[in-house]
Design goal:
Blueprint lengths: L11 H42 L22 H11 L11 E6 L4 E2 L11 H7 L8 E4 L5 E10 L2 E8 L1 H53 L13 H54 L5 H29 L8 E4 H12 L6 E6 L3 E4 L1 H18 L5 E7 L2 E5 L7 H4 L21 H11 L3 E6 L5 E6 L18
Helix pairs in contact: 1-4, 5-6, 7-8, 8-10
């Protein structure tokens, strides 16, 4: 089980403020560390330059140093005289730091009251005539940190120049305290600024959240969020407004469909109920209907049931906004050819086609059903032994009949749900076939239109985006379903 993150329990503004605090804290801490290390390096370099610039007695190879007994015994006066003799540089100038004498046998002495640094091998080597030892860190016998440089001054003797680091450390401690205070102040300011900015920046999101909660509580989709500016919040508000507008339109269409469907279903249901009640009454009263009347009544019930089933089927199809199948590349000319083959078996009309290859992307069953609906409509309104022209060029399908035709006003309404022209009200149908065509074409990114045909009849046009088939090297069009 995945554990929630450290910031997950916090609200969004709290997380933003905490992130700002952490970012400032890390930045200030990194700057403080770099400044501290740079200052320490600078101060240490200054101490080293002081050690290198300190004047010491020049080494005389022919000089003979006095006899110096070990510190643990012997004449203390001689040691003090020797230490005092090296305590001053040329001209009697005081040397920075303290001096400590080292003998070739490793013994050492220092002025009275001075802390002693235990000589190392490099110090003894310098007293024996070796090179000057490099500057190093060391510790006195009383535990203080010092910097030490050893240089030979006479045969068998060397001087250790010792510089106390207490002053440098006090400076660094003061700097560390100042930087710690600065870090605390910076974090406090960052927390205040982060919280303020988070509140100001998330105020539009609070408004959006309140609106969404209002929509969820009231189910009202007419709420509009102001779109101020061009930032991400404004884009989110615009997307929400478009979503609610689309949902409102979908709800309105569904409500209108229910109202229209209930109105259209009432007529066949009333007729069915009347006919069935007539049959039941004749059975209950024992007064049988004439055979011809009974046959006509049963045929009427059968036709009404078929019309009712067709209406329910078309309502079910129309209620789905999305194609039932996964879109795929299709040959629209093949679909039109199959639809023509199906419709040619109905009625006594002749279908003349002029079809060019065209590839579209969509649902094959939905597209074929749409083309069949338009062809059925043309057959229904065409007198016997007339011609229907089908033309497909560059994705533009035109189906023209020579029927009763339509006016310009009727042409603008033929794709409305349940709308039927005065000439069609005496013919079978639900008024949903062309509405299904319009919805299917719109789902596939196309357009459907109708207009009166010159010379009588009507022409229906369906335009679908697509492309010509890719041709092979042999020049034949590549087959697409």
């Amino acid at each position: 089980m995945r554990r929630p993150g450290l910031l997950r329990p916090l609200p969004l503004r709290g997380r933003l403020a905490l992130i700002a605090v952490l970012a400032v804290a890390v930045g200030v801490a990194a700057a403080a560390v770099v400044a501290y290390l740079a200052t320490e390096r600078t101060l240490r370099a200054q101490v080293d330059r002081g050690l290198l610039a300190a004047p010491l007695p020049a080494r005389d190879a022919g000089a003979t140093a006095p006899t110096v007994p070990r510190r643990s015994g012997g004449a203390a006066g001689s040691l003090e005289a020797l230490c005092s003799g090296v305590a001053l540089g040329p001209g009697g100038r005081s040397v920075a730091g303290s001096l400590q004498l080292v003998r070739a046998d490793g013994t050492t002495c220092a002025p009275d009251g001075s802390a002693v640094v235990e000589p190392r091998a490099v110090d003894v080597a310098a007293a024996r005539g070796g090179p000057t030892s490099p500057i190093r860190d060391d510790v006195t016998d009383d535990g203080r940190e010092v910097r030490v440089r050893t240089q030979a001054v006479a045969d068998g003797f060397a001087v250790m120049l010792v510089r106390d680091l207490d002053e440098m450390q006090r400076t660094l401690d003061s700097l560390a305290l100042a930087m710690l205070a600065a870090c605390g102040l910076g974090v406090a300011l960052a927390a205040t600024a982060g919280w303020t900015v988070a509140r100001a920046g998330l105020r539009p999101l609070d408004t959006l959240t309140a609106t969404v909660e209002q929509v969820g509580a009231t189910q009202r989709l007419d709420v509009v969020i102001p779109e101020d500016g061009h930032d991400e919040v404004a884009r989110l508000a615009g997307a929400f407004n478009r979503m609610t507008a689309a949902l409102a339109a979908s709800r309105e269409r569904q409500q209108q469909l229910v109202v229209d469907a209930s109105h259209e279903l009432r007529t066949p249901l009333t007729s069915l109920r009347t006919n069935i009640e007539l049959l039941l009454r004749s059975e209950s009263t024992g007064r049988d209907l004439a055979a011809a009347d009974r046959r006509d009544l049963l045929d009427s019930v059968d036709a009404q049931l078929a019309e009712f089933v067709q209406l329910v089927t078309e309502l079910t199809r129309l209620a789905h906004d999305e194609p039932a199948a996964e879109p795929e590349d299709l040959r629209l000319d093949h679909i039109v050819s199959r639809a023509i083959a199906r419709v040619s078996l109905r009625g006594e009309t002749e279908v003349v086609d002029d079809i060019q290859p065209w590839v579209v992307n969509g649902d094959p069953q939905a597209l074929e059903r749409a083309v069949v609906n338009v062809l059925d409509n043309a057959v229904k309104f065409s007198p016997p032994h007339t011609r229907i022209d089908v033309r497909l060029h560059q994705g533009r399908l035109q189906i023209s009949d020579r029927g009763v035709g339509m006016t310009a006003d009727e042409a603008g309404r033929v794709f409305e749900r349940f709308w039927r022209s005065p000439a069609a009200r005496a013919l079978p149908g639900s008024g949903l076939g062309l509405a299904i065509v319009a919805d299917t074409v719109q789902q596939h990114g196309g357009q459907a239109a109708a207009h009166p045909r010159r010379g009588g009849g009507a022409t229906f046009e369906i335009s679908l985006p697509g492309r010509p088939p890719v041709r092979s090297h042999a020049g034949a069009a590549r087959w697409v379903r």
